[in-house]
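Record passed on here:
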Amino acid sequence: MMRIESGYIFLKELRFRAFHGVMPQECMVGAEYLVSIRIGYNLTKAVQTDEVGDTLNYAEVYALVKKEMEQSSALLEHVAGRIGKVLFDYDPKIQSVDLWLTKVNPPMGADSTGAGVELHLINDKTDR
């Protein structure tokens, strides 16, 4: 016998061209962004059944993230919060969302691979 202590679905370094930023030029020209997500989810049933209906569908999660990335915002914090909310709304059984949103080569005068935000969100409505 085994017991799953915790389970996660993840999508790593999804690439988007998007138009987020405070500066007008950022919203007109756009930039490259990376989004990584780790979703806490009870995978016990999927491990046993091998049925996609017992887990999260990666393609559907990607489509939700893509839709939010297409909506321009001044702050990456706002975009990340919207992504978290839409995921919790999509499936109330999602327990947590760890999200990294990185703006590649941000316009801040530094030699950097990226800057961004990291959120750890807990679904208060999930029965654990």
